[in-house]
Protein: Dipeptidase
Amino acid sequence: MTNYLESNKERFLDELLALLRIPSVSADSKFKDDVRRAAEFVKEKLAAAGLDKASLYETPGHPVVYAEKIVDPNKPTVLVYGHYDVQPADPYELWHTPPFEPTIRNERIYARGACDDKGQFYMHIKAIETMMATDGLPCNVKVMIEGEEEVGSDHLGTFVAEHRDMLKADVILISDTSIISNETPSLEIGLRGLSYVEVEVTGANRDLHSGVYGGAVANPINVLAKMIASLHDDNGHITIPGFYDNVVELNDDERAELAKAPFSLEEYKQDLAINDVAGETGYSTNERTSIRPTLDANGIWGGYTGEGAKTVLPSKAFAKISMRLVPNQTPDEITTLFTKHFTSIAPAGVTVKVTPHHGGLPYVTPVDSVEFEAASKAFEDAWGKKPIPTRGGGSIPIVALFEQELGVKSILMGFGLDSDALHSPNESYGLFNFYKGIETIPYFYKNYAQLKR
Ligand code: BES
Ligand code: MN
Ligand code: MN
Structure:
């Protein structure tokens, strides 16, 4: 196995670079054909790795790629999930090298999707190829790579429900999360959920002269800014009535367990060039980004933002707002609470509209399972260290749906770093992480085949 990996290293990397050259941005219809091209590329590589039935499945959005290798119906089955779509690369001018012309600098691959998630799911295809070309597959494997994760996986729930038999598995294996550092491997055991809304505040029926009308007519931007500011109190608590009602509070032991993960506040601040952190009183930085829910404006616009100055009292102001959820909050409940509250705080003189976007449920992986043990041991085998269980802050909406629709739990065996700049300019993925991942994954199959009897 090590020999195969060593002698095919260059090719594995070249293939990933070719995939990274395809701008598969799911959010922007301009890239629709490129998204399909990426799907075709993945399908071909799955077939080339030796998997059967490699095909594209159409959805009302972007296609799902699927392939499988059933070696023995009596062996356990692993379903690998990943996404070949990427976030928009904007703002392009902040990239040191173009986002879709992957470049290797300082032992890192720089490109949009390098870590999230092309570099990460591609490790699985190469690990499967390596196992098949050497000792054989210890488990059956099914691979499903979707093209709409970055836009909320809207069509994947239906796809999964309609292909229950095809997707039947004992465990779902996903590399789309982070480890603490290359010296401290970790396994994420939780994901936050998401509720995403867009709000629109309307004042007068048209933009007005801010001298002629200013002072007498509500300014939607002023109003929106005040409304958004009121959503947190001075302790960083969210003020929406009922928002915390279903939040599962961790007990002291659980909090102490999570606090064991090494963390340097100084390095954290330095990395982000901030002079202090900010958040909910009574919780550590790690807790604020994992076991606590949040509310953030992601974008705000309205009025005149062009060059120079224009004296205008705008008719409308908008914002996109996301709320990260924790067990047992649900996107439906939180979206309803938000809408009710936000409309109720609108002052006289404006009207407010709330439009829900996508959402997703939070998820927690049980650690007392053979699945978790197989993953934990895989890290020990490949890294010589036991991984630290961590609760992650990001969201992968399909994970909770997998459990609902298939009754199967997911293992979040990601190899990225938070500093890989996912969704930011200059996203990168370490060559070390790419190769180490390919080395670690086969241990999971080996351990799982032994443990699951
Ligand atoms: N891979 C990320 C999620 C992630 C990143 C989890 C790092 C844990 C650590 C995923 O591609 C993602 O970006 N998800 C979106 C949700 C989606 C509905 C847009 C997110 O978390 O914003
Ligand atoms: Mn991802
Ligand atoms: Mn992402």
Summary: The longest helix spans residues 431-451.
